[in-house]
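user: Here is a favour to ask of a fellow structure person. I have my own habits and do not want them to colour yours. Could you put it straight underneath, so I can go through it closely?

assistant:
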Amino acid sequence: MADQKRVGPLKSSGDAHPEWTLMYRRGLSRKKIAELARVKVSAVASHLAAAKAADPGLKAEHRAAVDDAARNAAPGIKRLYQLLAMVEATGRYPSRSAEDKVERELAQWLRRRRRDADAGILNPVIGAGLSVLPDWRRKPREAREDEQWQDHLQQLAAYRAAGQPWPRTAPGVTGPEKELGGWLRSQRYKFRHGDLSPARSDALDAALPGWLTSRKAAAEPYDGQSPTASRPRRTMSGSGS
């Protein structure tokens, strides 16, 4: 029989989770593997202990992969620290339309890292650094839309707290009432068609009890029950806006 060159450790027939072993071999930590697999770290640790016993070279390959990731991350470490410093100082993420060149470059760098994360190729060292930032993977447009939604919610809550009735969108209505009325009508429409996320529906319930009722129905005595409480929740594929 001709000799065959071995290209790597063969997968053991007793390896219940070969994907965990492969991720460890490529430098991922036990904690990260557990997060991706949605299992306890102890389960991954137990599996890897058996895998290392079966393949004595596995630990060395893991360490080499970790060191390689650190070397590859070196050029991006400076950008990472610049980003962390900016977010801490300003409370916001960099903008690609900023006047400052450094900020624009940071925004482009972060955009590429988001794409790397979506594709599953983000350097683990850079990923660990970015993980300290809240919602760093959110697209700027999504963040702006959520901020605008929260602003409208607060404005309508203040409008109602001032003793105003539910805002209208009828002909002749102008100013803040018309704008808030249009926004409220949009939320009601999305809820009734299953396009409003449960999180936003709950926020409306908390800030504006009775928000789903019509202006006429709102004049009736309020029984203390949210109008959404008796309605079945639909499974949302998106967040709504």
